[in-house]
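Input record (Table S2, row 361):
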Amino acid sequence: MKTIAILTGGGDCPGLNAVIRGVVRAAVLKRNWKVLGIADGFDGLVDGPRIIPLDMAAVKGILPRGGTILGTSNRGNPFAYPVEEGGEVKLMDVSRRVVENFRKVGAEALIAVGGDGTLKIARQLNDQGMPVVGVPKTIDNDLRGTDVTFGYNTAVGVVTEALDRLHTTAESHNRVMVVEVMGRDAGWIALESGIAGSADVILIPEIPFDMEKVCQAILARKERGSRFSIVVVSEGAFPAGGGKIVQLTADQNLGVERLGGMGQWVAAEIARRLEIETRTVVLGHVQRGGTPSPFDRILGSRFGTKAVELVEQGSFGQMVALRGRRVEAVAIEEAVGELNRVDPEGELIRTAEDLGVMVGR
Ligand code: F6P
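Output record (6-O-phosphono-beta-D-fructofuranose complex):
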């Protein structure tokens, strides 16, 4: 009987349990294999091995559940792992310990479910002789190699519902509602939910925005008779010439750190420049928690079952990916490194602009 292991790393994401369930059902039920869960991502192989046996009973009822029943990594990358030594925390390469602990587990392969960071680690471990199959995950949808990641559809649904709800309160009070959404490096969530939720302004990291033009767009709406506006801001968006928040010096940071985030800064600027009432809503981890959408349950299930097929074929160093309508295998290599970001000249941005949405420029 073959034994395989699975872990989930990085930020949690709706659909992770669908992947775990898919792996267990395809392995246990269809192939009579044994599946071992590694607790808390790679942490469970650094200070372990810490194992959660995954039989059919363990995955019962988890399909609609958010989060991950395996827990996820909190301490990080085994190639640069924080270790305390003499009262000081140093980053050490503990990857050999991971490989040794994996041997102790007695599994023939590891299915690593995660985003850019987890997949990079998976590829490096695979290069060191540990047989790994990857499953791409992130609500931000910023991974290359796959058309879409699971979790993203749920996040867009949550934000769209929030925008629908915010419309009625914004309209009642003639306010500008600024909604900050996740997306450190890529504006997919802001852009697609902004289109779906009929935002008036969408600010994303890929297009540094001009605050003057944002204000003009709000004024133009007022002139057309709409006394409220909805502004969606990716957490990673930044003003043209300002640089990203993290790169700003104390003088340049425009009070962003003090105010709490880019959404709050944009709201404060609109209020100051136009002398109108604004409110900020930071959706935060609500976008990541809770039940996955049907699309993400299906994609997670397809990814999980396909990952088992790749293990069966011995296709290590590969990850599952959605290409068009098919789930296929691609080299993990293809997904890591450069991120999948919104093309400022692409069709989706043109659609937004043709709809009259202001995208910061
Ligand atoms: O999963 C990616 C992400 O959603 C980013 O958009 C966000 O910056 C980050 O997670 C925050 O995660 P955490 O609070 O867990 O560090």
